[in-house]
Specification:
The chain has 323 residues and is α+β, with helices and mostly antiparallel strands. The chain folds into three domains: 123 residues, Helix Hairpins; 69 residues, Urease metallochaperone UreE, N-terminal domain (HSP40/DNAj peptide-binding domain, Sandwich), CATH 2.60.260.20; 95 residues, HSP40/DNAj peptide-binding domain, CATH 2.60.260.20. The chain has nine helices and 15 strands. It has a four-stranded mixed sheet with strand order 8-9-15-12. It has a three-stranded mixed sheet with strand order 3-7-6. A two-stranded antiparallel ribbon has the order 1-2. Strand 1 and strand 2 form a beta hairpin. It is elongated and about 95 Å long. The termini are far apart.
Length: 323
């Protein structure tokens, strides 16, 4: 069993006040909540860790016990587990009334598997149910219906602006259509959850969830890297040499004017801030658009253009072989 450093998990010192612990938990919970990071397994794991840490450090009695264990926690490893004073993690914190996630919320987020570590269950009692016969026992609960997963293929434009998908789900032998909203900025491989839209349970428990696995289709002009977009733009050789402006069409369809400095070489990259992909759950936050310059050589020359290019060639020859 691995010892859990709850202070490190919340990023606070061992002398932190209750207020500092609460503030750290709130900040991390908002950042890593699964609804803010759909399909992000790392964020889901982090959310479990910070919820567990606050369940202990946010309760004075549990924190006292945890501090007493300290480096000597191995001495208690083989002792039978005892219930913590609050029973199931998710009750009210000891100070300020700020609660961790309730059992039902944790189950809805993470399913039947316990989100709490063996270390927590051993030393702080794990998940206790309501009191039975004067002592705390575990409530027998009907099993939640199983989850359903489907694939949603999206264009990059749909991922940029957000969209919806209609999914047929079979329940009790009947087909029903579920409309799932996919947020703007969704990443390839992310899962979008529609709570309670999965299979029904055998008893009175809640239905399972419906998950849409997002698969982004390749785009002919744009490449996505995290929240940034990359594209190329053709620049006439005269504009590359003398400088000027060229038009850049963004993924949203708008047109930007890109200033090209004189003597721009092919392959130069320009950064257009705030014209990349939106960030899920963060209104107004976007990545950037990176534009690579492709210098365009004319495919044909008029007689006049040829005379000008020949004159330039003569000037170049004089530079190389001065008389």
């Amino acid at each position: 069993m691995e010892f859990k450093d709850y202070y490190a998990t919340l990023g606070v010192s061992k002398t932190a006040t209750d207020k500092e612990i609460k503030q750290a938990f709130r900040k991390l919970a908002r950042k890593h909540h699964p609804d803010v990071n759909p399909g992000d397994k790392a964020a889901e794991s982090k959310f479990k860790e910070i919820n567990e840490a606050y369940e202990v450090l946010g309760d004075p009695e549990k924190r006292r016990k945890y501090d007493e264990l300290g480096a000597n926690w191995r001495q208690y490893e083989n002792q039978p587990p005892r219930r913590g004073p609050q029973g199931f993690p998710g009750g009210q914190g000891g100070q300020g009334g700020y609660r961790t996630v309730t059992p039902e919320e944790m189950e809805n987020l993470f399913g039947q598997e316990s989100p709490f570590s063996d270390f927590f269950s051993t030393y702080f009692g794990g998940a206790g149910g309501p009191s039975v016969g004067g002592r705390r026992g575990r409530q027998t609960r009907a099993r939640k219906g199983h989850d359903i997963e489907a694939v949603a293929e999206l264009t990059l434009e749909e991922a940029f602006s957000g969209t919806t998908r209609r999914v047929s789900v079979s329940r009790d032998g009947k087909e029903r259509t579920v409309e799932v909203r996919i947020p703007a900025g969704i990443k390839d491989g992310a899962r979008v959850r529609a709570a309670g839209e999965g299979a029904k349970s055998a008893g009175d428990a809640s239905a399972g969830d419906l998950y849409l696995l997002v698969e982004l289709q390749p785009h002919p002009r744009f490449e996505r890297r995290e929240q940034d977009l990359y594209t190329r733009v053709g620049i006439p050789v005269t504009t590359a040499v003398l400088g000027g402006e060229v038009s850049v069409t963004t993924l949203s369809g708008s047109t930007l004017r890109l200033k090209v400095p004189e003597l721009t070489s092919s392959g130069r990259v320009f950064r257009l801030r705030g014209h990349g992909m939106p960030t899920v759950g963060k209104s107004g936050e976007r990545g950037d658009l990176y534009v690579t310059a492709d210098i365009q050589i004319p495919s044909t020359l008029s007689p006049e253009e040829r005379r000008h290019y020949e004159a330039l060639q003569a000037l170049d020859t004089e530079k190389v072989n001065p008389s």
